[in-house]
Every structure is written in structure tokens, then in C-alpha cells.
Design goal:
It comes from Lentzea kristufekii. This is Helix-hairpin-helix domain-containing protein. The structure is a single chain. This protein has 6 domains: about 60 residues, DNA polymerase, domain 1 (Orthogonal Bundle), CATH 1.10.150; about 60 residues, no CATH class; about 130 residues, Chondroitinase Ac, Chain A, domain 3 (Sandwich); about 240 residues, no CATH class; about 90 residues, no CATH class; about 60 residues. Helices cover about 25% and strands about 25% of the residues. Helix 9 runs antiparallel to helix 12, helix 10 runs antiparallel to helix 11 and helix 11 runs antiparallel to helix 12. About 0% of the residues have low confidence. By secondary structure, it is α+β, with helices and mostly antiparallel strands. The protein has 16 helices and 40 strands. The strands form 9 sheets. Strands 1-6-7-10-11-17-13-14-18 form a 9-stranded mixed beta sheet, with helices on one face. The chain has a 7-stranded mixed beta sheet with strand order 33-30-31-32-36-35-34, with no helix packed on it. Strands 8-9-12-16-15 form a 5-stranded antiparallel beta sheet, with no helix packed on it.
Length: about 750
């Protein structure tokens, strides 16, 4: 059934609002007849005035020409609407045969009733002579016994299309511009009767973005669907956001796979699911795979593909973004074993370590990307170090933000942190977990930046400077960054100036409908979506729960040069196999042995028991405070005396205590203990140690610092009996010293 046009044309009077004398004069009626017209209000259409005594069919042409009948209330009442489950016959849609069988009316009367459609909700308006054969008593009987019902007729008024939707059948409401359609599937309308569904096309946002109001005047259940024209110069549905202002301060959006594009005789349209209704507008998003013209937050979510409130979209997008940025841990790539690194970085934060003369140099590069990047802390702690941050080239707005974050001690994307440490400068720790607040600001700000890029290219320098001043003002007023509320306030502060900047570019400097449409979209999206504090608050909270849980750190230390081999350049003691024992700074011990006889390559095997240790040191040198590191494959290695490394391998140890052993006599007196070594008595007798210098003279080592200093340069012979030490023939005049 075609909608009834209920607007008044020029020169017509409205029979639902006109005075008695005006109706009488226009229709050339007696005042009592005109008064009957007023008492019969509201009228559904002017043709039904034929039922008023004193008017009749002879005035049909005059009624069509001179009067109209606009609604007196919206939505109009529907007292005769059909009730679900009732056996009443619908006079608005049933066949002649069904009406005749159900009502008992004669066929000629039923045929004339059907011809009079669309029927009003007040059937007294279609009694004779409007519909001959349909008497007023018959109408009252049919209504009182609920034998009949009347589905409200569709109509258009003031640019709005109205159609009755029911739970059983739903409805398809087409706007006066046929590109705008509201689809209400069966089962969505609540209640026994139904509700009005309306569509009204609105002036385009900024003159170019299609917009319309959609509404259901009653209770309903999601989802329904809306059809709107595609914005100018959008390529396909993935380039379109169908968003709406709900009228309560909230926004909603359908996009990406939640919007389906199709072609009609009237042009390209996009249909999107909707869980709430209001003013819908289509925006150009330009696709998520275009890093220059992407709209960002909502268009690029991987999770929210249906119509959802902006708050829900924000949570979904923020959670998905934070989860994507929670990259797996990676070892810090060590290039030189003297630049020791313990710990892991996060994917996107590259780490290398190398030696520059006697200084260890670590380089941390944030390669996480501008548009979805993560910001890392850049202030190491502990020890002594030098720090330097450098920045790659980036866009103007990104550069402003990066500079602010660097000044605050953070490492944004496309920046590099260099840490330099000298030997003996201690351990320095750097957190390599994301900084949630700064990361939230960076990712969110890039959405502004990506939207504003094209506008900045068009605007003159003085306007760009104004944007910079607005940025400085917002950062100065709000601060960067103490918590989610502050972050949200920063976005609220920035959204207004940037939206004005983009709108200015669209209105004054854009050439061509395509560019104008893109910039118009950007301006409205910034104003409607990105100015919401909760967007960044949600990102802040979601990022915090995911990024902070990683808690990754890197510890750096520059090692002293490894101790020199014993005199003669040989590691091997009396064992004769070229092996020795190495102990790290945590007290773990390893036997280090050539891979094969005479080989210059070594492997290290962990010594698990004190018994094995004491057996092995009977015939081998011990190198104390040996450092371990990682090779390029991430395998644990020991840094060997004299240079080189030995990977730690699994192997069963064997030791023969009856083999060759130290005789604890100096080589100058016919023994096998060389000069320039440390000797230690057994631990169970105490922790005494002595140094035998290059002249073969023995002197006590007074403290642990001196011991460690000497142990960095000289091997140790363990478990030397105290009586042999006391009987050493050549004694130095002073205790051992080391610097």
C-alpha cells in the first residue's frame, strides 16, 4: 500500500485545524455542516469528508483540491490496530471474500469498502455516502464485537515516512528519498498490536554526508537494519562507517563487515544492523589498510562489527588493541659477550649490545609502528650509565607528541635509546614493559593525527601554528600523564581544535567532492567520537591490565676483560686433559673441557655436587667469578679466560680421585704449582686465601674485594692444606694488593 501524502499544498486549508467559518467558506458549506466536520476530527484524509451529512460525493473534486488533513498528534493513535492472535479480520488488507465471510456484509458494500482504502482508525468516517451499504449500526456492531480491525495506513508528513510495524510481520519503511529505508524483521516489535516505524531524510552533514532519522515509536528488540546512501567517493562498504547520534549524548556505529553495500536504481547504498535508532550518517573511513587516511578507532576494530554504543565500542576496541600490542617476549640480542644482558624485551622493542673500546653500549629501538605503537619507559635505574635518545623523522603532530614524551622520560615509536656503561659501573636495570598511560595517549592521538594529515597539507602555515599552540595549551593545562582521567581530559581538550582545523580545510581549502567528503567525515568523527574521554580511559585501563602484567626488564653490565690464562698460556693443571673449573658470581660451578683432544673449542658441564667439585679441583685450575652470557641463538655460554665462550651442555660427569693431582709445592722448588696463582685452603677449615706472585713469594689476601680483583686476573688452586701454605718457603713482605 502506497503511503498517503498528508502535507498541505499551497492554497489548501487543514480540516484538522481550520475554524468552522474557514471550512464553510472554502467548501461552500452551511455552518452546521462545517461544525460536523470539526466534531468528526481528526480526519485521516479529505476524501473521507464525504461521509459527513450535507457534503456527499458531489464535492469530491473540491475536497481533493481545496483541503488537506494533517496529523493532529504524532505518533497517531491506533485504537483499531489488529491484536496478535485475534481472529478479527483486517479491513485494511484482507480479501473481499474474507471480509464478506467474517462480517456478514453484502459483497457490494465490501467491494466499496476495499475501494475506499486506506481506511482511517475511525470507521465512522467511511459510512454512507462515503461507502454505500456500510451503515453506522453495522460499523458499531463490528467494532464492539471485535470482529474487525484496521492496520494503520502508511503515510508521509513533513518529510517523514510512517509505516505500521507488527511483531508478526515487521515492516519496511521507505523514506521520501528511496535510498533511506528502515527494515524491521518479524519478531522485533513488542506488544500485542504494533508500533509506528519512521524514516526522515535530513540535510547532509557539512553538505556532503548523507543523513537521516530512523525511529520506532514503541517497544522493540534488536536488531533491525537501516539503509542509507553511501557517502560520495567511498570505494566500498569497508570504507564506510554508519554512525548515529542517539539523542542522549551517546554515539553508536556499524561498520566494516557490519555494513553491506548494494546498488539501487537511485545509487549506491549501505545497509547496517542497528541495536538502537536515531540520526544515522555515513562517513568515509578510507580503509584500515591506508595508514595515511584511516579513521582509526572504530573503523579499524577487529571485534565490534555491529551497531553498539560508543562506550561499548570503546571497550572492545581498547581491549583488542591492547591485546594485539601484548607481543611475546624476546631475548636481548647480544653482539658482544662482555656487554652482558639478563632479561627480555617485548616484541617491537629491539635490543642490541656491543662493545665500544672498554665501554658496553646497549641500543633499544622502538620499532612498534606509529599507528599502533607502544610507548616504553626510557629511564634506567641503578649503577652508573650515560643515556641518549634520538628520534626518526615523523609527521608534524607525531613529532610534537614524541618530543613531549621524550622529555618525560619515555620512548615513543620511531625513537632509539642508547645506554653506555663502563667496566665496574654496576648493574643497570631498564623496564621493557609498556607504559600503559603513554601508550594509550600515543595510539589514541594517532587517530587524530591520521584524520588531520590531509588537512595539514592543505592549511597555510599560520593555521598549522595555531594547531601547535592548541596542542601546547592542552598539554600545559591537562598535563601528560598521571592517570586515565587526565588522559581522557587531554583528548577532550584536543578534539575541539583539531576538528575545527579539519572542518576549516574542508570548507575553505578542499577541491573536489571526494576530498571534501573525506575531510568532512574526519571533522565530524573527531567531534562525535574522539572527543569522548571514556575512549582513552577505556584504552588506558585495558592496556594497563594487559601491558603491565608482562613486567619485563633488562639488566645490563659491562664485564671486565676475562682473566688471563696461567703462565705459558695453558689452562690445564695436573689432569693433563686441558680442562679447568669455572665458578660464576652466584657460586655455580662448571668443568670446562676441550670438545676434543687438542681442540681450541670448549664446552661447559655443570658440577652438581660438592663431592664432584672437590674431586675435580684436585687436578685443575679454578677460575672464579666467571661471567655467563647468551650467544646469538639465545644459548647460555660462559665467557672464557683469554677470550671466547663455552656453551653449557648436558653431560654426565666422571672424576677419578686417584689420578694426577696438585702437590701443593711451587715450581721453583720442584712442585707443580706455578707463579701468579691464588691458593685457598679448604672451606671447611675457613676462608683463607693467599697469592703467589711472579717471584714465587706467598702473601695473604686480606679481604674479599682484593680476592675478587685478583681472581679476575689469576686462576685459583682450591683445597690447599694449611700446613703446606704455612710451610711455603718464600714469603712476601706485605699482604697481597690489587687495583
Amino acid at each position: 500500500m502506497r503511503p498517503l501524502e498528508r502535507d498541505c499544498a499551497a492554497g489548501q486549508i487543514d480540516i484538522n485545524t481550520a475554524a468552522v467559518n474557514e471550512i464553510a467558506r472554502t467548501l461552500r458549506l452551511a455552518d452546521p455542516v462545517a461544525a460536523s466536520v470539526v466534531s468528526g476530527r481528526p480526519w485521516h484524509r479529505s476524501a473521507d469528508l464525504i461521509s459527513v451529512p450535507g457534503i456527499g460525493p458531489s464535492k469530491s473534486a473540491l475536497l481533493a483540491e481545496a483541503v488537506c488533513a494533517t496529523p493532529t498528534e504524532l505518533p497517531p493513535r491506533a485504537p483499531l490496530a489488529c491484536v496478535a492472535g485475534s481472529d478479527a479480520v483486517d479491513l485494511q488488507s484482507a480479501t473481499v471474500e474474507r471480509i464478506e465471510a467474517r462480517t456478514g456484509l453484502g459483497r457490494p458494500a465490501v467491494e466499496r469498502l476495499v475501494s475506499a482504502r486506506p481506511l482511517p482508525q475511525n470507521l465512522e468516517q467511511v459510512v454512507p455516502p462515503r461507502v454505500p451499504g456500510l451503515s453506522l449500526p453495522a460499523v458499531k456492531r463490528l467494532v464492539d464485537t471485535r470482529a474487525v480491525c484496521v492496520t494503520p495506513a502508511p503515510f508521509r508528513f513533513a518529510g517523514t515516512s510512517w509505516r505500521w510495524a507488527t511483531g508478526a510481520h515487521g515492516a519496511v519503511t521507505v523514506g521520501s528519498d528511496p535510498r533511506y529505508v528502515l527494515y524491521v524483521p518479524p519478531g522485533k516489535i513488542a506488544g500485542e498490536t504494533g508500533a509506528w516505524a519512521t524514516v526522515k531524510a535530513l540535510p547532509g552533514e557539512l553538505g556532503v554526508l548523507p543523513s537521516a532519522d530512523f525511529h520506532i515509536h514503541g517497544q522493540w528488540r534488536p536488531e533491525v537494519a537501516v539503509r542509507v546512501p553511501a557517502p560520495p567517493h567511498s570505494d566500498d562498504a569497508e570504507d564506510v562507517i554508519v554512525a548515529h547520534d542517539r539523542g542522549d549524548g551517546e554515539m553508536s556505529a556499524s561498520f566494516d563487515q557490519g555494513a553491506i553495500e548494494s546498488a539501487t536504481p537511485y545509487g549506491r547504498v549501505v545497509t547496517a544492523a542497528a541495536s538502537s535508532l536515531s540520526t544515522f550518517t555515513t562517513y568515509v573511513s578510507s580503509g584500515c589498510d591506508d595508514p595515511v587516511r584511516r579513521t582509526g578507532l572504530f573503523a579499524c576494530s577487529d571485534t565490534a562489527r555491529r551497531d553498539t554504543t560508543a562506550q561499548a565500542l570503546s571497550v572492545q576496541w581498547a581491549t583488542a588493541t591492547a591485546a594485539r600490542q601484548a607481543r611475546s617476549a624476546t631475548n636481548c640480542d647480544v653482539r658482544n659477550v662482555r656487554a652482558r644482558t639478563i632479561g627480555f624485551t617485548t616484541g617491537g622493542l629491539g635490543c642490541t649490545a656491543d662493545m665500544d673500546a672498554e665501554s658496553g653500549v646497549w641500543t633499544f629501538a622502538n620499532d612498534s609502528g606509529l599507528f599502533s605503537g607502544v610507548v616504553f619507559p626510557a629511564v634506567p635505574s641503578e649503577g652508573t650509565f650515560e643515556r641518549k635518545i634520538t628520534r626518526d623523522d615523523m609527521g608534524v603532530l607525531s613529532g610534537w607528541l614524541a618530543g613531549t614524551m621524550i622529555e618525560g622520560g619515555h620512548l615513543p615509536p620511531k625513537t632509539t635509546l642508547t645506554i653506555r656503561k663502563n667496566v665496574g659501573s654496576g648493574d643497570t636495570t631498564l623496564s621493557t614493559a609498556a607504559a600503559p598511560g603513554h601508550s594509550a595517549v600515543w595510539i589514541g592521538a594517532q587517530q587524530f593525527i591520521s584524520l588531520a594529515d590531509e588537512a595539514l597539507d592543505l592549511l597555510p602555515v599560520d593555521e598549522v601554528l595555531k594547531a601547535h599552540q592548541a596542542y601546547i595549551s592542552c598539554v600545559g593545562t591537562v598535563g601528560l600523564i598521571t592517570g586515565p582521567d587526565t588522559v581522557g581530559s587531554l583528548f577532550e581538550c584536543l578534539s575541539g581544535p583539531i576538528a575545527e582545523l579539519v572542518e576549516l580545510a574542508a570548507a575553505r581549502y578542499a577541491t573536489g567532492d571526494g576530498l571534501k567528503a573525506r575531510l568532512a567525515s574526519s571533522a565530524k568523527l573527531i567531534g562525535k567520537f574522539f572527543g569522548r574521554a571514556f575512549i582513552v580511559v577505556d584504552l588506558f585501563v585495558s592496556a594497563g591490565s594487559i601491558w603491565e602484567s608482562q613486567n619485563r626488564t633488562v639488566k645490563m653490565r659491562t664485564l671486565a676483560p676475562p682473566p688471563a690464562p696461567p703462565v705459558g698460556g695453558q689452562f690445564g693443571g695436573p689432569s693433563g686433559d686441558g680442562s679447568f673449573v669455572a665458578r660464576d658470581d652466584d657460586g655455580r660451578a662448571y668443568v670446562v673441557e676441550p670438545i676434543s683432544a687438542g681442540s681450541a673449542s670448549y664446552r661447559a658441564v655443570h658440577i652438581a655436587t660438592n663431592g664432584d667439585f672437590n674431586c675435580l679441583v684436585q687436578s685443575r685450575f679454578v677460575f672464579d667469578d666467571i661471567q655467563w652470557s647468551q650467544n646469538s641463538d639465545g644459548q647460555m655460554v660462559l665467557v672464557l679466560p683469554g677470550g671466547g665462550t663455552a656453551p653449557v651442555v648436558d653431560r654426565n660427569l666422571t672424576c677419578d680421585p686417584s689420578g694426577p693431582a696438585w702437590n701443593h709445592v711451587g715450581v721453583r722448588h720442584g712442585g707443580n704449582v706455578p707463579d701468579n696463582v691464588i691458593v685457598k685452603m679448604p672451606d671447611w677449615l675457613g676462608r683463607g686465601s693467599w697469592f703467589i706472585n711472579g717471584e714465587g713469594k706467598i702473601s695473604p689476601i686480606a679481604d674479599g674485594g682484593t680476592y675478587l680483583c685478583l681472581a679476575h686476573r689469576h686462576p685459583v688452586i682450591y683445597n690447599v692444606p694449611l700446613d703446606r701454605i704455612q710451610a711455603w718457603p718464600d714469603v712476601a713482605e706485605h699482604p697481597a694488593a690489587c687495583s
